[in-house]
């Protein structure tokens, strides 16, 4: 037997009391009508069974009278139900009135089944009697679901059905054990009532849980709506922040490019001023201008790099990297600078292959090599790579912890001024500039202190631990750990690096072609190159270059040229990367070199963009790259390197 469900209500009233339909509970009344089709079907089946079983045994008037009364009640309930279907939106008053008549019809049907026992008891065999009891009791069980939430109504209904049945069995003295059967049926009566109460309690508990679930669901919907609104606000804020970050990066990139142009022209005109004046004070002012231009160029680059890293604009794509290729590009970029200072720039271990992001690795090494050359006045700079097993040595300052296993140790050594032990722990901090006991030379630029901070962040993005060791007056070594790659090594040999002494540039008799669309920059280049003794032919577009190659006369482009005159082969090509009409300096190089096929024409490409991506083109088209603003001493060093002059 299932135990009764405990009562549960906020006001401590009984659950059945809560479930008892209150007057005016319209939804409950509608629910009664919803169950009417199932009840009518059960009644129809019961009447058909009773009629078919007892028609051969009882007088026709009994069977027909009982079935007729049952059919009338059945049709009245059906009419009741159809009226409800026609008026589903009926108000409270009609529904309450219909409920009263519904109760009368249900109780009348219950009494009809109780009368059936008196009409058909004792007819036929004992099996007929058992069938009669089972049909009547099944009808009582079927009413549990319909009337369980109405305990009083159910008690009256089951009493109308089972009480006549129990009395008829107890009064039948012709059958043995009739009293015992009456007692058994009485127990079934009590069990059925208890079952109805239990079912009603369980149903009520389910209703309470459903109501609470609906309340919780409502609260959850409200909270989800609030969360969705908050998420929308957060997403909008994130999109706004990302847009702001992109705008900031684009602003720095645009500002860097646009401001490099006048700075570049400023440096060229300052050099032209020095060439035309031998006043020491003028020369000192020109040096100060050049130092300021150089400092601004470095600041633009650092701000742009740190901004792109902070805004997530740097993607990490590890891949096998041949260090030979990386070292070749570093040599291509820094050899002229080392050449000018009389430093030896060496590369060892270029046969190794690393597995890391090639772009980020090269940017880290570029920063480290640039610093090494800047702070070294004699000796040289060494970039090396070797295989190390276990934990790498960790220097006085580190951007990440060591890593176990086999890896490559990429190092940048210099013989520069070194870093003091007090400054070494903070060398990778942002905006930190080491204080040296030794006075810094003019070319030891004092910037924002972001260069090594950028190195540390890029190394962290690559998950490559970086460390530093240094001795004041002896030099510094930066060490970077990267995983070993698995690409087969090639036997390609690196081009030997050249070491030159400090130069004194003369370009007497040299013909240099300049392609630059910015008039101020073009004029500045012409003035400086002519001051160094060169003959200069200047153009502003690729079309102008093609016209010159075709022998056409262009006023101001080729002094002394006449229509139909064949152009002389230049000694050096100096072109801007971005030119009008969507053309680039590469187009100008291709046209000129094709025209003078068979001659090796050295080239320098100058660009105002610091976003990178030109290194592969530089290798493919055989040119060196300079980033605006280009100070005259850097330009002079690069030209001397390309022309191999002292």
Describe this structure in words.
The chain is α/β, with parallel strands linked by helices and 646 residues long. It has three domains: 15-175; 317-483, 2-Layer Sandwich (Heat Shock Protein 90); 511-643, Rossmann fold (3-Layer(aba) Sandwich), CATH 3.40.50.2300. 56% of the residues lie in helices and 11% in strands. It has helices at 15-19, 26-34, 36-54, 60-86, 92-120, 126-147, 151-170, 178-276, 280-310, 323-341, 358-374, 451-462, 519-531, 542-549, 585-595, 615-621, 632-643; strands at residues 319-322, 344-348, 353-356, 380-388, 397-398, 407-414, 466-471, 475-483, 511-515, 535-539, 572-576, 603-607, 624-627. The strands form three sheets. A six-stranded mixed β-sheet has the order 2-4-6-8-7-5. Strands 10-9-11-12-13 form a five-stranded parallel β-sheet, sandwiched between helices. Helix 8 (178-276) packs antiparallel against helix 9 (280-310) and helix 11 (358-374) runs antiparallel to helix 12 (451-462). The chain is rod-shaped and about 145 Å long. The model is unreliable at 1-24, 391-404, 442-448, 489-504 and 555-562 (pLDDT under 50).
């Amino acid at each position: 037997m299932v135990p009764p469900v405990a009562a549960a209500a906020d006001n401590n009233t009984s659950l059945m009391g809560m479930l008892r339909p209150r007057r005016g509970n319209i939804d409950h009344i509608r629910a009664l009508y919803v169950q009417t089709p199932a009840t009518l079907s059960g009644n129809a089946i019961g009447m058909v069974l009773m009629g078919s079983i007892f028609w051969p045994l009882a007088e026709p008037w009994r069977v027909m009278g009982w079935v007729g009364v049952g059919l009338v009640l059945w049709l009245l309930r059906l009419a009741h139900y159809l009226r409800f279907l026609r008026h589903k939106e009926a108000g409270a008053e009609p529904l309450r009135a219909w409920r009263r008549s519904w109760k009368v019809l249900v109780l009348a049907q219950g009494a009809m089944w109780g009368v059936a026992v008196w009409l058909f008891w004792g007819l036929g065999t004992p099996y007929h009697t058992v069938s009669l009891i089972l049909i009547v009791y099944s009808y009582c069980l079927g009413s549990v679901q319909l009337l369980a939430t109405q305990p009083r109504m159910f008690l009256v209904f089951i009493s109308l059905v089972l009480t006549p049945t129990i009395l008829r069995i107890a009064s039948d003295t012709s059958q043995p054990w009739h009293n015992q059967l009456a007692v058994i049926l009485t127990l079934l009566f009590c069990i059925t009532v208890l079952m109805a109460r239990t079912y009603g309690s369980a149903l009520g508990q389910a209703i309470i849980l459903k109501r609470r679930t609906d309340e919780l669901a409502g609260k959850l919907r409200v909270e989800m709506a609030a969360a969705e609104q908050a998420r929308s606000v957060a997403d909008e804020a994130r999109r706004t922040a990302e847009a702001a970050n992109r705008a900031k990066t684009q602003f720095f990139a645009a500002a860097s490019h646009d401001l490099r142009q006048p700075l570049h022209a400023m440096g060229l005109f300052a050099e032209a001023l020095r060439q035309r004046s031998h006043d020491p004070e003028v020369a000192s002012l020109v040096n100060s201008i050049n130092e300021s231009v150089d400092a601004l160029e470095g600041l633009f680059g650092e701000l742009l790099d740190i901004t792109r890293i902070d805004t997530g604009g740097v993607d990490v794509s590890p891949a096998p990297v041949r260090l030979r290729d990386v070292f070749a590009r570093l040599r291509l970029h820094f050899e002229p600078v080392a050449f000018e200072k009389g430093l030896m720039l060496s590369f060892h271990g270029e046969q190794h292959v690393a597995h890391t992001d090639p772009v980020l690795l090269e940017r880290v090494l570029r920063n480290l090599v640039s610093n090494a050359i800047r702070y070294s006045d004699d000796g040289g700079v060494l970039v090396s790579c070797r295989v190390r097993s276990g934990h790498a040595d960790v220097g006085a300052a580190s951007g990440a912890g060591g890593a176990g296993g086999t890896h490559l140790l990429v190092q940048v050594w210099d013989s520069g001024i070194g870093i003091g032990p007090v400054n070494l722990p903070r060398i990778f901090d942002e905006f930190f500039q080491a204080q040296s006991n030794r006075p810094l030379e003019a070319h030891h630029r004092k910037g924002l202190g972001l260069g090594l901070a950028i190195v540390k962040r890029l190394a962290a993005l690559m998950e490559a631990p970086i460390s530093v060791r240094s001795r004041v007056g002896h030099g510094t070594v930066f060490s970077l750990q990267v995983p070993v790659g698995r690409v087969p090594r090639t036997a390609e040999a690196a081009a030997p690096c050249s070491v030159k002494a400090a130069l004194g540039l003369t370009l007497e008799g040299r013909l240099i072609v300049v392609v630059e669309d910015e008039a101020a920059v073009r004029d500045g280049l012409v003035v400086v190159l002519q001051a160094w003794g060169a003959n200069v032919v200047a153009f502003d577009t690729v079309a102008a270059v093609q016209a010159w190659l075709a022998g056409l006369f262009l006023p101001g482009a080729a002094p002394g040229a006449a229509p139909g005159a064949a152009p002389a082969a230049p000694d050096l090509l100096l072109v801007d990367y971005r030119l009008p009409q969507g053309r680039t300096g590469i187009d100008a190089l291709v046209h000129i070199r094709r025209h003078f096929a068979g001659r090796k024409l050295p080239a320098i490409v100058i660009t105002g963009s610091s976003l990178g991506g030109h290194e592969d083109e530089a290798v493919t088209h055989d040119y060196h790259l300079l980033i605006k603003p280009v100070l005259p001493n850097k330009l002079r060093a690069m030209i001397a390197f390309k022309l191999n002059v002292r």
